[in-house]
Amino acid sequence: MSNTKYTAALEKYEQHLASIGSQEMIINMGPQHPSTHGVLRLQLITDGEIVKEVIPHLGYLHRCFDKHAESMNYGKSIPFTDRLDYLSSMNNSHAFVMGVERMLGIADKIPKRVEYIRVLVCELNRIASHLIGIGTYGIDIGAFTPFMWCFRDREHIMNMLEWVSGSRMLYNYIWVGGLFYDLPVGFEQRCAEFITYFKPKLVELDQLLTENQIFISRTANIGILPADVAINYGVSGPMLRASGIKWDLRRIDAYSAYPEIDFDIPVGKGEMGTVGDCWDRYKIRVDEVKESVKIIEQCLERLIKDFPRTDTFDPRALVPKKVNLKAQDYYVRAENPKGELGFYFVTQEKSDIPKRVKARGPSFNNLSVLPELGKGTLIADLIAILGSMDIVLGEVDR
Amino acid sequence: MNTQEISTLIISRFGEHAIEKIEEMGLQPALFIQVDLLEDICFYLRDEKGLYFDFLNNISAVDLHEDGFLITYHLTSIPYLHTLVLKVLIANDRDEAHLPELPSVSAVWKTADWHEREAFDLMGIFFTNHPDLRRILLPDDWQGYPLRKDYQDPESYHGITIK
Question: Which of A54, A163, A265, B96 could be disulfide-bonded to A374 (CB atoms 3.0-4.6 Å)?
Fold first, then answer.
């Protein structure tokens, strides 16, 4: 590259690292550090135990989602969306599929049974994702037991979703215009059994971690994220709600079957410290699991009573043979367990291959606030802050 | 507030030339903004009472072949719940020595910081006044901009065959 203007920022960064004070030290956390939840590298400039600056380095898991999506049709991209946030694949494909359906103009024609099944599997997946978030957060700050408990309960969800779709984590179950298959016979009953089993386990988890004094001392009043800073950095999902903003796209955009379902939106109240601290971010996830349980119960009830399985019901009835779109662009957003997942489509005339698909990962934006939050904290607190963000690197790097 | 009303407000504040056209063909109408006024208009949209676009959802760069590059901004106002799409079209310039340029909006929304770094990294768009415009997903010494339609995969990277 001939023009030095384009490399000036890189030189500035290198000079900055070279010119740190004699009492300061550069510490590399990651890319293989367990508490970075994947392959994230953080460069810390420290003064003793105090973190003066955090410089995140991304891209270790970059798999070119955008480029892949430009070379294949919309249906074929769905398995790739599963691999963005691989802990909540159902939610990813739901968002992607909704965007294509709206552009096709078939979003209102999707059968209610399909919509309720989508919401059901998405909420199951949301619980699974939040359980990982809660469990690994415990591990990050030294509590090992919650991790085992969370994974034990998550395993039931994984088994159920495997029964539905044939795959444990990367489902490719929600298709444009419908579903891969109807729910297997007996799924509703088994799901209801799981909910009965899971409710007391949530209480146990609450007792073990939420009100644990050691846990509170590590998380309350740590990494306080004020609401205005959160919004300015594009933070969304549980992190934004923990800062006191009641912002849930399931309510705001009222997509799929959510307008017919009754659930609350938990927001951070600063019960143990200040609004927007690590404890609030943790607590939001616990509360959201409880809300998801409520949503699942309502879905099951309606699936059994109002939209039962029939011999003639075909979940693929509306699946288009070829996605024929006119030239247009559309940005679709949906509430993922981590926050706002967006897909920006630019279509081509008379082609079922998009010109451009950009994925807006919630973790990518949530992580961008880390240099701001990490400034001036202790190294040990930085781990607590990073864990409370609950990022998935598959989505940060795409 | 819909796109038409917002465009009237922008025109009354910045003049006729601020908005090049209003695109209403798709599901989401969009405003094409004059490049030089981009940052001022963004500050106005963020701070003006009644508009208050405090949340930047997404910035995407699109390669339109000979039509140039399209940068799209998706905005949301959290208190008023309305959304807006801004678009900026920049001329087609594929010489690696002069990347297409437009002003950065990272002073308005911090979200733009990493999104613009990504657009620089993958599409080769240079954002002036950006505080730290390094590559973000690819290695610092990567050559070329992979999301461009005319990008050719290199044969190797540091001696590793990658084709």
Answer: A54
Residues in A touching B85 (Cβ below 8 Å): 331
For position A333, which CATH number holds? 1.10.645.10
B96: nearest CB among A1, A5, A245: A1
- B34 touching A, CB under 8 A? no
pLDDT per position as a tens digit, B13-52: 888 888 888 888 778 888 888 888 888 889 998 888 888 8
pLDDT at A265: 92
Residue in the structure block whose two tokens are 């395993």: A155
Residue matched to tokens 């613009």: B116
- What tokens does B50 get? 């009644």
Q: Is A33 inside any structural domain?
A: no
Question: SS3 of B46, please?
Answer: helix
Domain annotation covers residue A299: yes
pTM given for the model: 0.90
For residue A334, the surrounding DSSP H or E stretch is strand A329-335
How many structural domains comprise chain A?
A: 1
SS3 call for A356: strand
CA distance A187 to A235: 36
A56 inside domain:
no
CA distances from A394 to A38, A84, A92 (A): 8, 5, 12
Measured between beta carbons, which residues in chain A are less than 8 angstroms from residue B60? 344, 356, 358
Q: Which residues pair with A51 in a beta bridge?
A: A46
Going by C-alpha positions, the residue among A3, A85, A83 that lies closest to residue A367 is A85
Asked whether the beta carbons of A125 and A164 are under 8 A apart, the reply is no
CB A90 within 8 A of CB A125: yes
| Cβ atoms of residues B135 and B121 within 8 Å | yes
Please provide the CATH number assigned to the domain covering B3-161.
3.30.460.80
Does A73 map to a domain?
yes
Closest listed residue to residue A360, CA positions, set A336, A328, A326, A388: A336
User: Does the pLDDT value for residue A194 go beyond 90?
Assistant: yes
Which residue range forms the structural domain that includes residue A370?
65-397
Q: Residue A2 — pLDDT band, cuts 50, 70, 90?
A: low
Close Cβ partners of B68 (under 8 Å, ≥ 6 residues apart): B89, B90, B91, B92, B93, B100
Q: Residue for token digits 């209480």?
A: A203
Q: What is the rounded distance in angstroms from the CA atom of residue B54 to the CA atom of residue B81?
A: 10
Task: State the nearest Cα–Cα gap between B70 and chain A, in angstroms.
Answer: 11
E-only strand ranges, chain B: 19-23, 30-33, 55-63, 69-76, 83-90, 101-103, 126-128, 156-157, 160-161
| Predicted complex ipTM | 0.91
Question: Could you tell me the residue ranges of all domains in chain B?
Answer: 3-161
CA-CA distance, A185 to A181, in Å (whole number)? 11
